[in-house]
Design a protein that fits this description.
The chain is α/β, with parallel strands linked by helices. It is built from seven helices and 19 strands.
Length: about 450
């Protein structure tokens, strides 16, 4: 029998039912979200009928499920059609009916309010994008000014826009413009003679603008990913750029995006990747020229992704990988030319991943692996040419992994043959070196 106390049980379930329906609406609306665009904005305004239909259908299913569960819980067998309905029970049923109607009205209000909120958010995003575009145009105009001071203001304006950008695509656009500015050709220093003093001062002023861009980029990439003003994870295209100033990536984390120094020229100043973490994405120095200054990877950690120095020329800089840790990913020096200056892998640890020196050429300068520890992974000097300069393997330790010199030409690196009998790891030598092996 459908008794009065059973009606009370249903009334008690009504409040909980409405709460679950509200949650259900939010789930349906969230699942229906799409990226903001003009067509999506129209859907926000015109698709309310579909949203209501989905909401009521979902509500009916939930209500039916709850009713069926209550029927089973209360062990209803059948409804006694001969039982008379008294006034109190009828009044309770009427209140229950009005409650259901009120719940339906609340659902409609919730759906409408939610859709209105999304429309308002889309409008706010469009307005923020419009303001960003206006400020972007003004900043780019400043960057193209003949006045170095105005250009400097444009650089800071673009950096600020990147920090305040409403989405990642607009932030990337600002970064791309700053990189493109560094890629523009510039007039070399005419000197400080009496006939060119004005041009010399202008060169120094524009050089200051370029160095400011380098400093700002380094500052933003040193900030931890996810924090305010951090650009980590964004692409950085410095292809063909001449870096003759200070650029600091100390402690930066390269775990996504693409960073390119392809064909860049390090002609002076200092670039620091000290204690940087390379754990994903691609960082390329392919074809770069290290012809002056200092580039440091002191204590850097290479644990994933791809870092390429393929085809790079080390001709006069001091490049340091002192204490670097190679534990994963791939670091490639394929076809690199070590033709001058100093490159140090002293105290570096090779415990995993792959480090390639395939077809590398050692013709001048000094390359040091002194006290490096090889405990895993593969370090390959396959087809490397040792035709000059000094390459040191003194005091290295090899406990695991493989160091391969297959098909290498020229004399063996200093100190390499002397440690072969004291290390249990695998060292593969070319046949021309084997007779020299004690």
């Amino acid at each position: 029998m459908f008794l009065q106390e059973d009606v009370k049980v249903l009334r008690m379930a009504e409040a909980g039912c409405n709460r679950w329906l509200r949650y259900l609406v939010l789930i349906v609306m969230t699942a229906n979200q799409k990226p903001r665009s003009a067509s999506n904005d129209r859907e926000l305004r015109l698709g309310i009928g579909r949203a209501l239909a989905l909401t009521f259908a979902a509500a009916a299913l939930v209500a039916g499920g709850i009713f069926y569960g209550l029927v089973v819980l209360l062990d209803f067998k059948e409804i006694d059609s001969t039982t008379k309905l008294d006034a109190k029970t009828l009044f309770d049923l009427m209140k229950l009916s009005f409650g259901v109607v009120a719940g339906a009205g609340a659902l409609v209000a919730l759906v409408v309010a939610y859709r209105r909120q999304r429309v308002d958010e889309a409008g706010a995003h469009r307005e923020a994008t419009r303001l960003h575009t206006e400020r972007f145009s003004q900043a780019v105009d400043k960057l193209g000014s003949d006045s170095p001071a105005v250009r400097l203001g444009g650089v800071h304006a673009l950096a600020g826009l990147a920090d305040d950008a409403p989405d990642d695509n607009l932030r990337q656009t600002c970064i791309d413009v700053l990189c493109a500015y560094l890629q523009l050709p510039f007039t070399p220093d005419p000197g400080d003679g009496p006939t060119s003093q004005e041009e010399h001062h202008r060169y120094l002023a524009l050089r200051k603008v370029r160095h400011t861009v380098l400093r700002i980029i380094g500052d933003h990439y040193r900030r931890p990913k996810g924090t305010q003003r951090s650009w980590q994870g964004c692409d950085l295209d410095l292809t063909g750029v001449t870096i003759d100033g200070y650029m600091d990536f100390e402690g930066a984390s390269f775990s996504g995006g693409r960073v390119s120094f392809i064909d860049a020229t390090f002609a002076g100043g200092a670039v620091s990747f000290d204690r940087a973490a390379f754990s994903g994405g691609t960082v390329s120095f392919g074809g770069a020229t290290f012809g002056g200054g200092r580039v440091s990877f002191l204590g850097a950690a290479f644990s994933g992704g791809m870092v390429s120095f393929g085809g790079a020329t080390f001709g006069g800089s001091y490049v340091s990988f002192f204490g670097a840790a190679f534990s994963g990913g791939t670091v490639s020096f394929r076809k690199a030319t070590f033709g001058g200056g100093e490159v140090s892998f002293g105290d570096a640890t090779f415990s995993g991943g792959t480090v390639w020196f395939l077809d590398a050429v050692f013709v001048n300068g000094a390359v040091s692996f002194m006290r490096a520890a090889f405990s895993g992974g593969t370090v390959s000097f396959r087809r490397a040419a040792f035709s000059g300069g000094a390459v040191f393997f003194n005091s290295v330790t090899l406990t695991n992994g493989e160091v391969s010199f297959v098909d290498a030409t020229g004399p063996a690196p200093s100190g390499l043959l002397g440690v072969l009998g004291t290390t249990p790891g695998a060292v593969v030598l070319p046949s021309t070196w084997l007779p020299l092996n004690p």
